[in-house]
Amino acid sequence: MTTKRRGKLEIYLDILSICAMGGKKTEIMYRANLSYDLLNKYLNDLEQNGFIVTTGNLRCLTDKGQRLLDLLVKRENVRKEVEDLEFRISMMTSRAGSLKEIEISKIN
What we know:
Residues 5-79 form the ArnR1-like winged helix-turn-helix domain. With 108 residues, the chain is mainly alpha-helical. The chain is built from four helices and three strands, in the order H-E-H-H-E-E-H.
């Protein structure tokens, strides 16, 4: 099994999803599977750009952050659909190749 590294947008999606419910820094770090240094980098970026706010020890989404979360969820859904279609196409083309091989062997 190959492991795929997450890109920035997937990491932002993970963090924003946790912050949507109000997340403590440690909770975000563990649930988003990030090191402490990376967590701080992403949280600072999100806070400086107005996507999250810190209230007490909780990180919560702003309206702008909720809109970004909604867009990232849509993007992820489209990515999964494209991946599924690519898989189906590859299965169809491999089956078509197998059928051609069967037909050729019948002729010979």
